[in-house]
Amino acid sequence: MATRNRTEVTEFFLLGLSSWEEMQPVIFGIVLAMYLVALMGNALLVIVALSDPKLQTPMYFLLSQLSFIDMFLTTITVPQMLVHTLSVNRIISFNCCMIQLFCFMAVGSMEGHLLAAMAYDRYVAICDPLRYSAIISRGLCLRITLTSWVVVSLNSLLYSVLVTRLTFCGNQVTHFFCDITPLLKLSCTRPVVNEMLIFTEGVAVVVSPFFFILGSYARIAVAIARTHSVAALRKALSTCSSHILVVLLLYGSVIHMYLRPSSSYDLDQDRQVAMFYTVVTPMLNPLIYSLRNQEVKGALRRLFRKLCISRNFQPGPRFS
């Protein structure tokens, strides 16, 4: 790679989602609507999962954590993008960029770990139902969540530190937030260490949960095949279909964005995929889990019924 002019970068200029200025108001309206739907849907799912007595199970504890992660993930990038969409000044300081990179990578990786924990929960529930309560507990889910946070935080810190040590030959980031790939593209020399890290340690932390999920569902499929029961197959599909769909949405985007040779990156296309990953998927997740889950739908009905009753209740006058 030819050496380019080096500059002391103290801030970055984010090019945004699209370079068409006349489309900025339209983009603002669409993204704002999706962001609000994602926040309200996930917040509602968290409230229902944590407050409804019938949902006080490890599975719904993990689901509430996933919804919290989705709210955090979309909030890391979208508010800044909305401000920049209608602004000429699309500058972010170097330090803020590194903080955003760290938070985005940690939260994004955490989502995969939670989905792996949910896959293990489904595996035990289907393949070993009599020992489910002895194996899966709220305490175990809490320990898995805390351990995963430590792992993904250390992984993201390593990435962020290595990026800060790069020498940049420009400050125009072809993205709407500070992501690892467009930042590496600004490096004056090929960041070999960073690229090796993505395909080694990055695969171990980010993709290993995906292989764990595949292994869990493979064992579920084998167990169901041995029963030769259509009813067992229908029950398994009913139990796991929402989770499988969320996994496909997440890892389809992740594999397309990050686990490719650097020569095949298309930053313009990656911006659109990142928008799907950071806004569309968090918006769809609560809809998927609520529309395809009878227990969640029942909890939502009970919550709305309580809200309506409390709103319509008006205490009569008191007489001494």
TrEMBL record:
Any Pfam family the entry gives: 7tm_4
SUPFAM superfamilies for this protein: Family A G protein-coupled receptor-like
Gene3D superfamilies hit by this protein: Rhodopsin 7-helix transmembrane proteins
TM region(s), chain numbering: 26-48, 60-78, 98-120, 140-162, 203-224, 236-259, 274-292
Domain G-protein coupled receptors family 1 profile: 41-289
Keywords of this entry: Cell membrane, G-protein coupled receptor, Membrane, Olfaction, Receptor, Sensory transduction, Transducer, Transmembrane, Transmembrane helix
Topological type in the membrane: Multi-pass membrane protein
Subcellular location field: Cell membrane
Keyword Transmembrane helix among record annotations: yes
Top-level taxonomic group: Eukaryota
Role noted for this protein: Putative odorant or sperm cell receptor.
Family stated for the protein in its record: Belongs to the G-protein coupled receptor 1 family.
Name of the featured protein: Olfactory receptor
Organism from which the protein derives: Felis catus (Cat)
Gene: LOC101097928
